[in-house]
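Escalated from tier 1: pyridoxal-5'-phosphate holo job.
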Amino acid sequence: MDLSTRLIHEFHLNNKEQAVIPPLFTSTTFERGSDGINFPGGFIYSRYDNPNRQLLEEKLAMMEEGAGCISFASGMAAVSAVFQTLKSGDHLLLADDSYFAVRNLLDILFSRFDINYTLVDMTIPEKISTYIQPNTRLIWIETPSNPLLKISDIEKITQIAKAHQCITVVDNTWPTPYFTQPLSLGADIVIHSTTKYLGGHCDIVGGALIVKDKDERYQLLKDIQKLGGAVPSPYDCWMLCRSLSTFSARMPIHASNAMALAIFLEQHPGIEKVLYPGLPSHPQHIIATQQMKGGYGGMLSVLIKGNQSDALRVLSKLRFFKHATSLGGVESLVEHRKSIEGAGSTTPENLIRISAGIEHSEDLIKDWQQALNQS
Ligand SMILES: *Cc1c(COP(=O)(O)O)cnc(C)c1O
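Tier 2 regenerated the structure:
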């Protein structure tokens, strides 16, 4: 069965009213049976678990072909949960172009627990093993990366990780399981900011981890969810389930719009460079084509010819592309990344990141055309 059909027809919350759409369980607490001990409904307290959360986790595990899913109140809470499974003195390898908040989290919080990392260019897998130390436990990849759209070879990297008894964690927020399924390529954990494409409408903040096996690490992550308490609300889980029903309809449009914009912008004299794995000019285009199925995702970055003020001037002329952070919603967004990443950012000053929405591609291209021609 295709993913689109499975997302709509698999997994339901049984209810005697036979509602077609799952009901929302706002109750924080659930009744014990007449024995006063057991919970015949299967739920105790909503921080531990909730019917809407269970439904969401079943759907997300299915999408990534994982054994289980642990959902969180944000993408960063999910990231943090993975680092909380490490011990003091452990070391990890982090993709040099990974989401900037992941680096900040390690620098500000986890360094206090003596958890250290090395930034590595994951586009050259052959070099990765030279960075592995005796205490390296984990390799963290993000492909395509944010905001340089670098592609790393998940299968090759997981093989290197396994040879050194490390686990591989893949941030799959950008490609989504629609285009890449890291667990089937050997990864141990997939992380999502469900705030982005899975939510799809810029109205829910959430995160999730999907694991390959229900092993000891999974049990620890469940404990971090339950006891750490950064759980998503029943309403957010309900909203996310609703969003997932249209996920397979939205994703190919995001990707074809991104491709159309990449092709248009690459030939425009006002653009210095387009970073999009779907373009043959992308340095890892071949790996991207092998690893990503059916498209290259909805994100691209462009280097505007000139400096920061030239880039900002083009931005100010765009009409449909809202100038805002985040990505993955139905509306197209643009962002000057360097100014949001702040101190320590290595992002080029003339880089604009584009989240292609699901508007008509011709309208999006025309908008860039008029903005570039005015500048
Ligand atoms: C947004 C994002 C995150 C963080 O998720 P939040 O939901 O904002 O906490 C992590 N990784 C990537 C790739 C992201 O785009």
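The CA atoms of residues 175 and 362 lie 23 Å apart.
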